[in-house]
Amino acid sequence: MKSKIILFMMNLPVLALASEGGTDIVPRAINFLIFAGIMYYLVAQHAKDFFIGRKDGIAQRLSSIQAKVKESSLAKEKAQLKVEEAKAQAKSLVETAKREAELISEKLVNDTRVEIQNLEKAYTDKTQIQRRKLTREVVEQILNEVFVQTDMALNKDELVSVVMKKVA
Question: Mean pLDDT throughout 110-137?
Answer without folding.
Answer: 92
